[in-house]
Amino acid sequence: MQDATMDRLAASAVSKVGVLVPPWAVLGLEAAAGAISHATWGQAPAVTWAAVGCTLGSTVLTGLTWAITHQRRLIGRLHATATTAAASVWFTTATITGLDAPVVNGALFFGGATLALSWNIRTVIRNTGGDGEGDGGDALGSLFARAREQAGLKGAKVRATEITAHKVKGQMQLPPGEKTADDAIKATDRIESGMQLPPGSVIVARDDDRADHAHITVSDPRAIRRPISWPGPSHPGASIEEPLRIGLYQDGDDVAYRFVGHHLQIMGMTGSGKSIGGAWNIIGEIITRCDAAVFSIDISKDDQTMGPLREGLHRFETTKAGAVELIRAIHAEIPKRTKWLASRGYSNWEPGCGLTYWYLHIEEIAKLVNEIGGQDEELLGEILKEIRSAGGSVILSLQRADYTQIPTIFRSQMAKMCFGLSDPDDVKYGVSSRQRKADVEPHEWEDHYPGMAYLDGKSVRPTHYAMPLRTFTWGRNSAEARAAMTAHAAAFPAASKQADPFTAALTRPATSTVSSASMGDRTMAIPMPAARPAPAVAHDDHQEFAADFAELLGDAAELIIATQHASPAMLQRKLRIAWEDCLRLLEALERKGIIGPPAPGGDDRPVLVGADDRAAAGVVEHLRATGDVVTAALARVDDPAPSLTAGPGDAVREPTAAEAEALQADGPYAKMHPTAARDLVYAWLRHRYQSGQRTFTATDDELTTVRHKTGNGRAWIYKVLTDLTDRGTLTVGASGSSRTYTIADLSPLDREDYNRAA
Prior knowledge:
Layout: H1 2-18, H2 21-41, H3 46-68, H4 74-97, H5 102-128, H6 139-147, E1 157-163, E2 167-173, H7 181-186, H8 188-195, E3 202-206, E4 213-219, E5 228-229, E6 244-249, E7 254-257, E8 263-267, H9 274-286, E9 292-297, H10 303-306, E10 315-317, H11 320-343, E11 357-362, H12 365-371, H13 374-386, E12 392-398, H14 408-412, E13 414-418, H15 427-430, H16 433-437, E14 452-456, E15 469-473, H17 478-491, H18 501-506, H19 516-519, H20 541-563, H21 568-575, H22 579-591, H23 616-626, H24 629-634, H25 657-662, H26 674-691, E16 695-697, H27 701-710, H28 714-726, E17 730-735, E18 738-743, H29 747-757
Parallel strand pairs: 5-15, 8-12, 8-13, 9-10, 9-11, 11-12
Antiparallel strand pairs: 1-2, 2-4, 3-4, 6-7, 6-15, 13-14, 14-15, 16-18, 17-18
Helix pairs in contact: 2-4, 2-5, 3-4, 4-5, 6-8, 11-13, 20-22, 20-23, 21-22, 26-27
């Protein structure tokens, strides 16, 4: 070790002294050349021609030196030119007089030594650096000094603060009161041109402490143009609080992304790597953490994207029905989690609090929003607003996040990760505000560099939000990548993690999903539930209206109590009913003491039952069962056949046997329990599915018979059919002026039965 140390010290000393030798070596060569020249051409008549040649050579060399040093600062240009002129004049004189002349010896000793020392001084100062710039400062300062005027940043200075193998970082001092960091950011391309660097080499970012300062980083943008292999998990078994390593920045730093307490939007064109580069690397890291769970939805590509990760996911839904069920389940669990945290003194989720951190990942969110109903879209929006406090984040992936694809409220809640785009107009939807100010250009990549992206989120450093990164690749080809991800997910299975009760309630093994195709081979063995005995009640149009209104009245009361807002406009928007019906519902609720009278000059009414009132649920159920007798009595039933008339003298004809049988009611039936009533409809749907009669209308005779047995009105059956449509069990079409329903997927009914049994 001592020998090695001495060798290094010796090598260091030689290298430091070696840079000082060249001027003195040139001085010695100059003296030897002068002596040889005098001995060869110093006598007449050759000396005359030698003097002429030396004079011409001196002139040419001096002029050439001045010309080729035009890029140097004035002092450097003058120094080099003066040295060339002095050396040429001395050589001409020595050729004529020889070295014996005192003036020649004195000029060589004093003048030559002075010039050699001056070059030594410049070399020492250049190598040690200093506070200056240009030739006397650091390399970054020198480069910037030559480019600043062309970039419109006259008076700005740069000083290097960190130098590594992949980057040079510096501090930029801008002229106070004249320039700001935004001016430097906008001039980045001109700085690169003045420095003669590749496009994308210079990244300028604001200094949060000084408005006249900026951070500047110079690196090679070509370093991430090639795929970078995945190096393995960064913190396996650690908390999700630790940053995720999802790629490398252009300057060689790891992308250490702490993804807790906010949501992330991943956007990019087809083939840009947003799914394999973005979702795989982020979720691939998340599943290695001990206190995190991922629930994924992809109704667009089924297993193609997230299939290899299935074993590491706590739940993976590929159908509309499963997606809707998961959204509703998460929405229902959020208040329970926030209440649980509050009862233990937590304002937000913290590592070690006892809850598993949730990630809801939705691939191709635009298709899901287009498929689900308005109610479930609202639930998803509420999840985005509330899940953070309950210990969770949402990851949305799509190709273009404009208002035609997702609600703008979704986009406004998101941090941004943007991969390659094909259209410059798309940039504003995929990047953050400060990234737009930095003029990032993901559209320049298109799909030529899959995996390259910009990232801006809560934990991204100020020097890196506008710096390109490249996510890791999992294999040389698709088959190798899928095999690697499958093996990775198997090494960190969701089933091996300790989960809190809320997470356990949502977790579903990947093999439990029942497809609609498998339902065709299943034998129907579900008995039709029997209705409860009840007193006889006539089933006429008047009673039909009363039953429908009672169901609608219960819905209105439940909505008003939950939102603590009562107005006809709100009911019309939420329940999608006529304005007159909204006014009728509000009048009935006022009679029942649920709301008060409207304020003078307005439509809003005070809500008299609190949302946290324990008796509220009972009040709603009572309204569903009893309705409002005043409204029922005032309701007018139109004459079913206005063309039939009779006079006072007309004879009354007895009905025939067939007419009498047709007038018989199927009742009497009492109103069944809601669960039993739905089970009756589900059993009918299964029967229709097995018999091959999968399309029907809401007024189908068989369905009407089932509805009568439940004791419910038309409003109730429409509500059930709408809910089943939202969950994916039914699809809606049109046949003439009628709406038709088609049975598409019965698996949600099986899941509901399973949940009830559990």
